[in-house]
Amino acid sequence: MINIRFPDGSERQFAKGVNGHEIAEAISSSLKKRSIVMRVNDDLFDLNRPINESATIAFITTEDPEALSVLRHSAAHLLAEAIKSLYPQACFGVGPAIEEGFYYDIDLGDVVLTEADLSSIEKVMGKLSADNQEIKRRVVSKQEAIAVFSQDPYKLELIHELPEGEEISLYSQAHFTDLCRGPHVPGTKWLKHVKLLSLAGAYWRGDSNNKQLTRIYGTAFFTEADLKNHLEQLEERKKRDHRKLGRELDLFMLSEYGPGFPFWLPNGMILRRELENFWIQVHLKEGYKLIQTPIMLNKDLWVVSGHWENYRENMYTSKIDDDEYAIKPMNCPGCMLVYKHEMHSYKDFPLKIGELGLVHRHEASGALAGLFRVRNFTQDDAHIFMTEAQIVKEVGELVRLFEYVYQVFKLDYTIELSTRPEKKYIGDIATWDRAEKALADALDAIQKPYKINPGDGAFYGPKLDFKLRDSMNRIWQCGTIQLDMNLPERFDLTYIDQNGEKKRPVMLHR
């Protein structure tokens, strides 16, 4: 027998190998009907997955926000199954759930899909849903996975990259099998309320050197009413599309001579100046010193900062007098030079330096979207230098500043703590761990709720991401607070402490 603990603190015994369906039914038939997946300790499991050790279990039902992500991931598999039945030659890239739906990247060979084809694909998906195929998980060896996907080069590429010994799971429904970590809904009957929305081109793995695949976007909900409401909201968004309003109100324009480089028109400049004046007033009141740094700087600076190694593919470069230069994608290195321009004392701290800096970043052509995704933009940027003992207080002060600005514009927000990326990062792990703990401690000190976003930190430090919800219910990542202990080290920044000794400052990048 094994002990199963529940969120309310209660505990029951079950036979070893019991699955989620059986545990939920033992509690109530209603819970079994509403459950989608289960959380076993810290991991999400399929309901039909056996549990062989004592654990803490929580059921994720249709009312939980996490359930929608699972539903939409399963809908992506249903889409792939429908595509495979219609186009047997199809090969598949990746098909994740995203903020409001899902997509799947597909190689259809010589077949070119149009928007008109989506309805016929939807009909096949509807039939597969009505068949209520059970979605089954199985664990295989690397060689077995290679054999299953021997005709799919994209899946093979992903499999070959998996570390030796890593668990590989496959999910099957009827005759369709996909490589996937899961979890998924128990069966396709849950996938009744699905809508395919649009087509796009997408390079495999986001690399323009790779083949362009067909990306099919869709969404899914648990009820017809929720789906209908969402589709109505999408129509309303089209009416409020900022590209449409930008033309009508003479705010900005875009040109084929510079994709991703917006032109500000007279009315747009009025709005810009008002926002910039507000920004200046707020920052002067908060004690910031305002600067402006050059747009283009020598490659050697970007080598020191780590951008050349970790961000080179997103930078525009040029040669001046045989030296290589780069247009700045971020303002931080320029601010480091301003800090080094003079000696600083602990009495100067916290030292707040702000900049409205024009930055340029190379974005893939397919990712450009009006003003939402551009190749140059003015960034509300600031760097606060301090001692390590001041971190908690200064993070709290920044959260207060963010809250004030968002309240002025009547914007609601949530906070995520984004931690060290798995691969591309600078500095040692111990420094990262210390920085992540400091940010968490700061939020705990001011009793601000947050959730962990693992692996999504900047390459130079962990960060707090502020997610804003707009009037059309869309989520945008806007402000960030990044605790950076690496750039001060790389640029050899120092200050004189109360004992007259040189010390390394800590920096908050905001």
What keyword list fits this structure?
510 residues; alpha+beta; Ubiquitin-like (UB roll); Threonyl-tRNA Synthetase, Chain A, domain 2; BirA Bifunctional Protein, domain 2; 8-stranded mixed beta sheet; 5-stranded mixed beta sheet; 15 helices; 28 strands; 33% helix
CATH top level of the largest domain?
A: Alpha Beta
Number of helical stretches of at least 4 residues? 15
Level-2 CATH architecture of the largest domain: 2-Layer Sandwich
Distance N to C terminus: 52 Å
Described by the principal axes of the CA atoms, the overall outline is globular
What is the strand content?
Answer: 25-35%
Oligomer: single chain
Secondary structure class reads: alpha+beta
Instruction: Give the neighbour order of strands across the main sheet.
Output: 16-20-21-28-25-24-22-23
Whole-number mean pLDDT: 94
Q: Indicate how many domains the architecture comprises.
A: 3
Largest sheet: 8 strands, mixed
CATH topology tier name of the largest domain: BirA Bifunctional Protein, domain 2
Under CATH, the homologous superfamily of the largest domain reads Bira Bifunctional Protein, Domain 2
